[in-house]
Amino acid sequence: MTRRRTIARTIRTVGTALHAGVPVTMTLSPAQSGRGIVFHRTDLGVEIAALYDRVSETRLGTVIGEGSAKVGVVEHLMAAAAGLEIDDLTVSLDGPEPPILDGDALSYLELLESAGTAEQDEPRQAVKVLKPVTVESGDARVSLLPAAELFFSYELSFPVIGEQYFEFAFTRAGFKAEIAPARTFGFLKELESLNQMNLAKGASLANTLALDDGGVVNREVQRFADEFVRHKILDAIGDMALAGRPLIARFEGRKSGHTTNNALLRALFANPANYELREL
Fold it and tell me: What is the domain count for the chain?
């Protein structure tokens, strides 16, 4: 039997919110067994469970909400928690998003690792997918398929980047080495219009791979030739972590994103015949 895990001690960091561009203090704290991952907006006095049915927006990141309170861009931190197999965690924020840090999941993962881990009393459960579930939107397609272990594959196609494909059989060591370091990316020509909408105000050449018509502008911070498709898998891992339990399934994505990822979890849980809970 595998037991649920939390972190061993509280740890804190300060950084800039990706979209709001404001300083944010984030405190990661141990949580009681069975609580799951919960975001606490300390400035608003509201707690928001990190679950797929709390997702309120998916345009430029996954946003969870409770009433009028929201927390944006949760996917990188959720991916890091999943990568370290953390089940119970309290994330306290005095602003609208976790700090973007390096634009990857590795920076969050290293924070969690520095806090240490602690086993809980309760057994760890997973959601085992029993039937194929697929969501399509335009030329985007995403599926969860029955499998013996958690596996991700993604096919990316973007202007300038071209086509990239990556497969990843989930392991903690593999996540840290192959997926967690992959930074988020964006196109410089879109930055001005995003800023006018009060978005991407915290993006910089240090935390984001910037693209123009010639390719990557800041190649000195690029970690992988196929970093873009790896980051899409990172996003998918974070979005799938909103299932509230680890999945036993094969995730396949093609030109998909946060919107289709959330729709996929909603479709999975809409029919109890699609899955079963299994003790790890």
Answer: 2
How many C-beta atoms surround the C-beta of residue 260 within 10 A? 24
Hey, what are 150's tokens?
């958690």
The domain that holds 214 is classified in CATH as 3.30.1700.10
Quote the tokens at residue 151. Answer: 């596996």
Which stretches of the chain are DSSP H helices?
Answer: 75-83, 106-115, 172-174, 188-196, 227-240, 258-270
Helices (H), 26-128: 75-83, 106-115
**Domain of residue 97, residue span:** 3-123
C-alpha 207/C-alpha 202 separation (Å) is 9
User: Measured at the alpha carbon of residue 77, what is the angle toward residues 212 and 102, in degrees to the nearest 5?
Assistant: 40
Look at the pTM and tell me if it is higher than 0.90: yes
Measured in whole angstroms, how far is the alpha carbon of residue 90 from the centre of its chain?
A: 16
Mean per-residue pLDDT of the chain: 95
- Asked if residue 197 has pLDDT above 90, the reply is no
**Catalytic residue annotation:** 258
Asked whether the predicted pLDDT for residue 87 surpasses 70, the reply is yes
What distance lies between CA 252 and its chain's CA centroid?
16
